[in-house]
Specification:
mainly alpha, Farnesyl Diphosphate Synthase, 17 helices, about 75% helix, globular
Amino acid sequence: MSKLNAWILASRPKTLTAACGPVILGTALAYRETQTFSILIFVLTLLAALSMQVGTNFVNDYYDAIRGTDSDDRLGPTRVTQSGLIPPAEVKRGFIACFLFAILISIYLMIIGGPTIIIMGFFCILTAYCYTGGPLPLSHYALGEVFALIFFGPVAVWGTYFLQHQHFNLSILIIGLGPGLISAAIMSVNNLRDIKSDTRAKKITVATLVGPKFARAFTLSLVLSSTFIPYYAVLTLDTKWAILATLSCYPFYKTWKQVARGPIDKNLNTALGNTGKYLFIYSLIFSVGLLL
C-alpha cells in the first residue's frame, strides 16, 4: 500500500459524512430564515469540520495502537499505526497538523462568530483529542455515543446556523439531534463490531457493558429516534416537506436487519459505511425539505 493510500485509510472516509451532514443541515436552516447565506462561511465551516473529524480519526488510530487496544484480530479496517503502515510519530504529527489546519481556517469564523464560536471551537478540538487521547480517553468509558450525539448533532448544526445567522434558536438544537443520533448509531455499530476485541482490551463501551443483544437494540433505537426529528420540524417550523427525511431510513432496511440479526464479523464494516450514507442522505433530504 502506498503512503498516500495509507493516509486515506487512516482518515476513515466512510465516517466523514458525520462532519458534512450537520453543516449542510445547519446552513439550510439559516437560509430558510434569512434567504441568504455566505458561501465562504459554508466552505470554511465544512473544511474545519472535516479537518477535526480526520484529526480525531488519526488520534484514534495512534492511541489505540499505543495503548494496545488494536490487535491483529480486529474486525475493523486496518489501522495504519498498529499495522506499521505509517510510523507512530508521523501519525501523531498528522493529527496535530489537522487540528492546526482547523484552527487556521477557523480564524475568520471566530472573527465572525465572536466568543461563542471561539469557545465552541475550543471544546470541539479538546473533545476530538480526548476522545481517545489523554489520561482519561472518553471512548474507553462508554461515552463515545454521547459525545458523537452532542458534537455531531446540536453543536455542529447550531454552530453552523449561528455563523450564518448570528441568532439563537432552541429549535435548531432539537433539530440537530437528527444527525447527532445517526452519528451515535455509527459509533454504536463500530462498538458492536469490536465488542470482543474491546472486551479483551478492557475497553469499556456501551456494547461491552450491555452485551451483543442489547447493543443491537441500542443501535437500532438510535436510528429509529432520528426518524422522529423531522416531525418536530414540521410542527415547529411549519415546513411539511421536512417529513421526507423520515423516509430516507427505509432504503437501508437490509443494513438495519444486519445490525439486528447478522453475525458480528467484518461485514459490519459495510453496515457502518451504510449508516454513514444514511446520515448524509438524511441531512440532505431534510435540508431540501426545509427549503421547499
